[in-house]
Write a structure and sequence with these properties.
434 Repressor (Amino-terminal Domain), Endonuclease, Chain A, 46% helix, globular, 12 helices, single chain, alpha+beta
């Protein structure tokens, strides 16, 4: 694995998505190669993220595999960004976020959430409480939560989520205690514990309060992308030095954290 590949983990996310769709069709590399007139070793290189797939063959593959239109658009946009170590995505209600590709096609997620439970793990009641009556229509909140829950079903069953919560996330004035208890139990119940490990970083942990939220995605090939969400944009960082810094920060926070216990929600 070269340094160049390490700088562009979106290649691995895209390749993993293509492999998953091919396997869902029950096709081997030879089957797909025969239909395209391309050697299976070339397709394997694309799926492993070792080579950047040209745009035209990408379109052929998506068509042959009958990938749904919204997923096609997502993977095409991911391909357009796959030669960049840093890219910024504007928040636009009419465009599906590239982060959904990372949610769906990576194997591990590391999240630092100092103030609010991450969107992808929120319950209906918690999402309503956080949004507030003036910032979002109730139906819009319900649809957003439902869409996120449906996307969880598409995740690789091997996926694991490591969540570090700041103490401030346990004391939001807008979230009633019973809603917070239900939310915390949701992300730590026995059925989810295989996928979500939740720990609490205490308020007295030195420096934790000054660290803004971030997420780190890890692919099956052990390459990483850092995602920073702002009000109007999402930033994707994959420069090895930058990634190493965020991984070190997560490790330091994890060392200060304590395992979440059900009694803490009582």
């Amino acid at each position: 694995m070269t340094d160049e590949c390490l700088s562009h983990p979106s290649l691995y996310v895209l390749g993993g998505a293509l492999r998953q769709h091919r396997q869902n069709r029950g096709w081997s590399l030879r089957d797909l190669g025969r239909l395209m007139g391309i050697g299976p070793s070339t397709i394997s290189g694309w799926e492993k993220g070792e080579r950047r797939i040209p745009a035209v063959p990408l379109g052929w593959i998506l068509g042959l595999l009958k990938v749904k239109p919204d997923e096609c658009q997502l993977l095409i946009r991911l391909h357009e960004k796959s030669d960049r170590a840093i890219y910024v995505e504007s928040v636009d209600d009419g465009v599906t976020s590239l982060q959904q590709a990372y949610d769906r096609h990576t194997l591990r997620t590391f999240a630092w959430a100092p103030r609010i439970i991450p969107d992808s793990l929120q319950t209906y009641d918690y999402a309503h409480a956080v949004a507030g009556p003036r910032t979002a229509l109730p139906d819009d909140v319900d649809q957003a939560v439902l869409a996120r829950q449906v996307r969880q079903l598409d995740r690789d069953p091997r996926h694991r989520h490591f969540l570090l919560l700041g103490a401030g996330a346990l004391a939001l004035e807008s979230v009633p205690p019973e809603v917070l208890r239900a939310q915390l139990n949701e992300v730590t119940n026995p059925g989810n514990r295989r996928r979500v490990e939740t720990r609490i970083v205490p308020a007295e942990a030195r420096g934790a309060s000054s660290i803004e939220p971030f997420m780190i995605y890890e692919t099956a090939e052990k390459v990483f992308t850092v995602v920073l969400k702002h009000e109007h944009a999402t930033i994707y960082l994959s420069d090895p030095a930058t990634v190493a810094g965020y991984r070190a920060t997560f490790k330091a926070l994890h060392q200060k954290a304590s395992a979440y216990l059900a009694k803490e929600a009582c």
